[in-house]
Amino acid sequence: MTNDWRSPRQKLQDEYIARIVDNLSTRELVQYAYDKLSEELDEYSDEGLTQQVQDIYPDLLENE
Q1: Are the CB atoms for 41 and 52 separated by under 8 Å?
Q2: What is the 3-state secondary structure (H, E, C) of the chain?
Q3: Are 6 and 15 in contact (CB under 8 A)?
Q4: End-to-end alpha-carbon separation of the chain, Å?
Q5: Beta-carbon neighbour count of residue 28 at 10 Å?
Q6: pTM here?
Q7: For residue 64, pLDDT beyond 80
Q8: For 13-48, what is each residue's pLDDT tens digit?
């Protein structure tokens, strides 16, 4: 017996996503990640972006 809590829709969605990801090249995966991160960061204010960078990669702000 399986303890799969996912709905039939979620199972189908998960399998669909897995199939898509499995068929992408590394270059395509990197481009997808870059595009999604860019879209997300476009939503940040200048201050929000600066804070995010400060928290994770503060060295990027050293020459600012």
Answers
A1: yes
A2: CCCCCCCHHHHHHHHHHHHHHHCCCHHHHHHHHHHHHHHHHHCCCHHHHHHHHHHHCHHHHCCC
A3: no
A4: 58
A5: 12
A6: 0.71
A7: no
A8: 999 999 999 999 999 999 999 999 999 999 999 999
